[in-house]
TrEMBL record, chain B:
PANTHER family: FERRIC ENTEROBACTIN TRANSPORT SYSTEM PERMEASE PROTEIN (PTHR30472), MOLYBDATE IMPORT SYSTEM PERMEASE PROTEIN MOLB (PTHR30472:SF70). Keywords: Cell membrane, Membrane, Transmembrane, Transmembrane helix, Transport. It comes from Candidatus Thermofonsia Clade 1 bacterium. GO terms for biological process: siderophore-iron import into cell. It is a multi-pass membrane protein. Belongs to the binding-protein-dependent transport system permease family. FecCD subfamily. GO terms for molecular function: transmembrane transporter activity. It holds the Pfam family FecCD. This is ABC transporter permease. One of its GO terms (cellular component) is plasma membrane. It is found in: Cell membrane. The chain crosses the membrane at residues 28-46, 83-104, 124-152, 164-189, 209-231, 257-284, 296-314, 326-344. InterPro entries: ABC_BtuC-like, ABC_transptr_permease_BtuC.
């Protein structure tokens, strides 16, 4: 449903950030973007969500060039879940989710009862129905991620891009967010997730795009990509994949010092 | 047990949020009540029924029967324009302050961020230095207020990236440039007549307000407030930053420029009539936030209503309680700061 072909992007012409990235996101799947800091994951997400215009290459959504969508149209298909942040003003959880209705409403319109009902239903489906009047900034990091997922659901988009949803979260919260993501994917939503936690890709990804300095190092099913050779090349560090009962179970860097 | 507490929390919080909604909209009645009360106040004592009759006579001329010409003049030609101007200016400064705090994601700014008040101050000072009429002072103040923001905007266009950050920086620079020009004007002004006039104007006041100033002020303030009210929910989204607003299908830069244009016109008109009345744009939105929370859907109407009410009260204090009229710019701080400190004590988790 979302295809990128040969994307190039450069903030400065002499230093390109993306050099020929291609990928395909199928319905109901989770695609992981892995790679070192500065390898272009966030830039790629911005190109896919239409925040940045790739200088060459195309992004197609349901077979149509993403550039031919109006911003509001695009936002009805693709939602962006930013990294954990603290807004300048402390809105309630319900207000945060309600903002997902923006692409469905006119510029001068305020949300109606129907929009509130959609926002409440979205909160229900991430398991936070009881949290709706709480101040957003008083939630834990994992709960905030779930609220932003609910905002994507209220936006009624079928594709959600998540920028490092596991950053700053403890294992419990990471698991809570990812289990919810996996369940929504099983219901037919599609996710592109950038991450610095290859173990989560091991557990949840259907496809993995391993990036290095703006290029594709490897792209495919996790069992083919999350290998010692490729990960070692991507992170420029000796990496071990620990197996149990023939299955890869953990990805850990090898200790170098004594 | 946990279930019960969370249900109780949900019910209480829902009650709070619906109470806040009602409070925000019923607060719009407060300025109307205060306008009527303010007409009663003054050195010359007038009966309430006389006020009502005089106001009715604007629509039904026969209602004025039995009211002396002095009273009619006092109510309709002196008190009414001043009271209306106070309400409009207070609403404009507070509403634009709330809007600027939202779009610049910063609770510590007001609509002078881009230099409109500083420009207007210089315009008025220049007109006074040239010995201009009241109309000329207002025109210069309005024109230079717009000019300052226009210069800041043009300066920011020299840079293609991060337009709003550069715009803010340019606004601050242009603002201090005009503040220096104002100081220069004061320095060269005649210390016996012109200098006190400039100083007095810069401190703000509604002493000289007549019907001449009200129609344009009302037209700009009411249409501007209507626009800010219409985009109040979008302010929530803008306050999350450009990336999220864009991802939610908006064009944040365009909407912010529209809001800046609207707020600049409103502030320039308010300052042109009332002089530099500081403090309201910064602090009234905070007071409103303490009462109705951060959601701009309620914050915008509450800020408009509180701003109008606050300046009405301050102006009433200025013209009735004290032997000589104290400039509004001084009173807003003297009266407002203790009120805000009292409000802050009650609630600590708002922002």
């Amino acid at each position: 449903m979302l295809e990128a072909e040969n994307l190039h992007y450069a903030y400065k012409p002499e230093k390109p950030t993306l050099r020929g990235i291609s990928l395909t996101l199928r319905q109901g799947t989770i695609l992981y973007l892995l790679g070192r800091n500065g390898c272009g994951k966030t830039t790629l997400m911005s190109c896919l969500s239409g925040l940045l215009r790739p200088q060459s290459g195309t992004v197609r959504l349901h077979g149509r060039d993403l550039r031919s969508y109006t911003p509001a149209e695009r936002a009805r298909h693709i939602g962006l879940i930013p990294q954990l942040h603290t807004p300048a003003f402390n809105y309630s959880v319900r207000e945060m989710v309600l903002m997902g209705r923006a692409p469905h409403l006119g510029l001068l319109a305020a949300p109606s009862r129907g929009d509130y009902a959609i926002a409440d239903a979205a909160l229900e489906s991430v398991g936070l129905a009881d949290y709706r009047e709480r101040p957003y900034t008083q939630l834990s990091g994992g709960e905030r991620q779930l609220v932003l997922i609910a905002r994507g659901l209220a936006q009624e988009c079928r594709i959600l891009l998540m920028d490092e949803p596991d950053a700053h979260l403890d294992l419990n919260n990471q698991q809570r967010v990812m289990e919810r993501v996996a369940r929504l994917a099983a219901d037919g939503l599609s996710f592109i997730i950038s991450s610095h936690v290859p173990n989560n890709a091991l557990m949840y990804a259907h496809r993995v795009l391993l990036m290095k300095r703006g290029t594709t190092l490897a792209y495919g099913a996790p069992e083919h990509i999350l290998t010692e050779t490729l990960l070692t090349a991507a992170y420029e560090l000796p990496i071990e994949v620990i197996r149990a009962e023939e299955q890869p179970r953990a990805i850990v860097p090898r200790k170098v010092s004594g | 047990m946990r279930l019960i507490t969370s249900r109780a929390w949900r019910r209480d919080a829902a009650a709070v949020s619906s109470f806040r909604r009602q409070l925000a909209y019923s607060s719009l009645l407060l300025p109307i009540v205060l306008i009527l009360l303010s007409l009663l106040l003054g050195l010359y004592n007038i009966q309430p029924q006389t006020i009502v009759k005089a106001l009715l006579s604007l629509i039904f001329p026969q209602a004025a029967e039995g009211i002396s010409a002095t009273e009619l003049t006092l109510i309709l030609r002196i008190r009414l324009p001043r009271v209306l101007a106070a309400a409009l200016i207070g609403a404009a400064l507070a509403g634009t302050g709330a809007a600027f705090q939202g779009i610049f994601k910063n609770p510590l700014v007001d609509s002078n961020l881009l230099g409109v008040t500083s420009g207007a101050g210089f315009g008025a000072a220049l007109a006074l230095l040239l010995g201009g009429t009241a109309l000329m002072v207002q025109g210069f103040a309005f024109g230079f207020g717009l000019l300052a923001v226009m210069l800041a905007y043009m300066g920011s266009r020299l840079y293609s990236s991060a337009p709003l950050i550069v715009l803010t920086l340019m606004g601050i620079l242009i603002g201090s440039f005009f503040t220096s020009l104002t100081a220069l004007t004061k320095y060269v002004a005649d210390p016996l007549n012109t200098l006190p006039a400039i100083t007095f104007w810069l401190l703000g006041g509604l002493t000289g307000v007549t019907w001449n100033s009200v129609p344009l002020l009302a037209a700009i303030t009411l249409s501007g407030s209507l626009f800010l009210w219409a985009v109040r929910w979008r302010l929530n989204i803008l306050s999350l930053g450009d990336a999220e607003a864009t991802a939610l299908g908006m064009n944040p830069t365009r909407l912010k420029l529209l809001i800046i244009l609207c707020a600049t016109l409103m502030t320039a008109a308010a300052v042109a009539v009332g002089g530099v009345i500081g403090w309201i744009g910064l602090v009234i939105p905070h007071a409103a936030r303490l009462l109705v929370g951060t959601d701009h859907k309620q914050l915008m109407p509450m800020s408009l209503a509180l701003g109008a009410s606050f300046l009405l009260v301050i102006d009433n204090i200025s013209r009735t309680l004290l032997p000589a009229e104290v400039p509004l710019g001084i009173l807003t701080g003297l009266v407002g700061v203790p009120i805000l400190i009292a409000l802050l004590r009650r609630s600590q988790t708002v922002w």
